[in-house]
Specification:
Layout: E1 5-10, H1 20-37, E2 42-48, H2 51-57, E3 63-69, H3 74-84, E4 91-96, H4 112-128, E5 131-135
Parallel strand pairs: 1-2, 2-3, 3-4, 4-5
Length: 156
Amino acid sequence: GPIIAVQVENEFGSNKPCDAAHFDYLTQLKEIYREHLGEDIVLITVDGDSYKLAQCGSLDGLYSTVNFGAGGNITSKFMVQRKEQPNGPFVCSAFFSGWLDHWGHRFAKTRGEKIAASMKEILEFNGNTASVSMYMFHGGTNFATCREVKLSTTRQ
């Protein structure tokens, strides 16, 4: 089917400093995407569920979404999005069902009940109008090319 949305940046609000050059870069990306994709595609950003991250990752003309994991107050997480994106649907564009592991560290685990409860709360949020995308529902092991893997610079 047709492409209806494209993510312009991922957690760009985490990059410092949050200054004019930071926003110039995001503006250039927006212009490049618009040039190649036109005006009918929704361009989105995704940032963590803190006001500072969302503010530094947002730009007029880009639809601001949030990402977060299981647990915590779902309403407060979506209110971060609403502050930067006053209109439109609530979107958790990356719901973390777990967390990344670091080589040689304790294995991160999230109880299934916690994931299910948070997912239920998201799906029922605002009269069942929120959207959610699960991130890394099942991960594999390919080490150096694995998304989010943190390897030390020391060979083991």
